[in-house]
Write a structure and sequence with these properties.
By secondary structure, this protein is mainly α. It has 20 helices and two strands. A two-stranded parallel ribbon has the order 1-2.
């Protein structure tokens, strides 16, 4: 029986990434009737993207002519320039049309108040009379990046735009760094990324107008880049940024660090652990957590209580969402929340336990242990999220797939044989 080739695996991964992208963009906007099926396809695509690269393939190390490399890099640069030419004016128009208003969405107003309080030396984590009187829900690395633009008096929402652009630029830089890529694959990849840019700027205008998700995208793409390049300092910084913005990778961190330590990469594990501990202590524990630990420990439960109310009054948003929450009842919200946290903890523990037991296997490509472990964790966490009200939430795990794809398309990530 003929072995599944590296070239075939490349195409499968490109197609799976395209399917996942389509599910998170086009199909959630234009095919509402098929959203239950779309949710299942999206979940299965994510699982396959997290599993296929773990197989080790025999790859040929090519030495393409410099002209070939230059042409495909020029194509990527032209695409990026055109994408930004489209994105920036559209976002400017969206910002002039949709103003910051906590009655419509309280995310950006929360961030503005946090920046204001930080600048004037006031207590950040206290009730906000300016925003429903609510308590702040965001950790420091969610609002700190907004400070520079806030201090200049500009529209703080451009922070999210800049982070999103930086994430796209980093992804395209990884794509342009490939020594060889099939032109058909390149075209499909650029179409998919272009589709995401179009959806977030034209159809899903609230992505930049109301949300801070662009910052989270930037953090996770930076983390993926650090993992793919095996740079512990960068990885440690990126993990801290992700940890102090969203808790989706909270349980993945210790599982990954312990796996690294006992699988022979102790220096990397120690460096990353020291950086995470130091930055978390400086940015969060000393200034905020140590003064009011109870407040932060109760945040998940307070958030869960708010979610129950949204389920009761806006269930149609659940039905139109991409996650699996639509398959559950309002009475099961608490159970779903607990189950999601369980999966976020169990998936990385089981994944890295299996990899450790198989550490001597020549069939497993351990180069992808960090990327694939995180991808699987994000896949389960986001798909079983009890609050998947808007499709923009899924852009983080969707774009993270491109980091895995581009690293997989690099033949140096595989077992190499001499070029013939």
């Amino acid at each position: 029986m003929k072995q599944f080739s590296y070239t075939s695996a490349q195409w499968v991964l490109v197609i799976l990434t395209a399917i996942e992208t389509a599910c998170a963009s086009y199909f959630t906007k234009n095919n509402v009737a098929y959203i239950p099926l779309t949710s299942i396809v999206y979940f299965l695509s994510g699982l396959m993207i997290g599993l296929i690269p773990l197989h080790r393939f025999a790859a040929v190390l090519h030495n393409p002519k410099s002209l070939y490399i230059q042409i495909h890099r020029i194509a990527i640069i032209v695409f990026f320039c055109f994408g930004m030419y489209y994105l920036i004016p559209h976002v400017y128009w969206v910002f002039s049309w949709i103003k910051i208003d906590y009655h419509a969405a309280d995310m950006i107003p929360q961030i503005q108040v946090a920046c204001q309080r930080f600048f004037f030396g006031e207590k950040v984590y206290a009730p906000m009379p300016e925003v429903w009187g609510m308590l702040p829900t965001y950790l420091p690395m969610m609002w700190l990046p907004y400070l520079p633009i806030y201090l200049t008096g500009g529209d703080v929402r451009w922070t999210s735009v800049y982070f999103f652009i930086a994430a796209i630029a980093l992804l395209l830089w990884m794509l342009g760094s490939l020594k060889k890529i099939n032109w058909g694959q390149l075209l499909l990849i650029l179409v998919c990324i272009g589709n995401l840019i179009f959806i977030q700027t034209d159809y899903n205008r609230n992505f930049f107008a109301w949300t801070e998700e662009g910052v989270v995208v930037g953090y996770y793409i930076l983390l993926g880049f650090g993992l793919s390049k095996k740079r512990p300092f960068l990885t440690g910084i990126a993990i801290t940024c992700c940890l102090l913005s969203r808790y989706s990778l909270f349980f993945w961190i210790p599982a990954y660090l312990i796996y690294q330590y006992f699988s022979g990469r102790r220096n990397h594990a120690i460096i990353e652990a020291v950086i995470i501990t130091f930055l978390t202590t400086i940015l969060f524990i000393i200034p905020y957590f140590s003064t009011n630990a109870t407040y932060f420990l109760h945040l998940p439960q307070n958030y869960s209580n708010v979610i129950k109310q949204i389920w009761l009054h806006s269930y149609d948003q659940i039905e139109k969402s991409l996650g699996f929450a639509k398959f559950f009842q309002v009475s099961q919200v608490t159970w779903l929340h607990t189950f999601d946290i369980f999966l976020a903890a169990a998936v990385p523990v089981i994944f890295y336990s299996i990899l450790y037991l198989k550490r001597k296997s020549n069939k497993i490509n351990f180069t992808f242990s960090g990327l694939c472990g995180l991808k699987l964790t994000l896949t389960f966490f986001y798909n079983f999220l009890e609050a998947p009200f808007f499709s923009y939430l899924y852009i983080v795990p969707t774009l993270f797939s491109y980091v895995i794809l581009f690293h997989f398309l690099n033949s140096e990530s595989q077992q190499l044989i001499k070029d013939v």
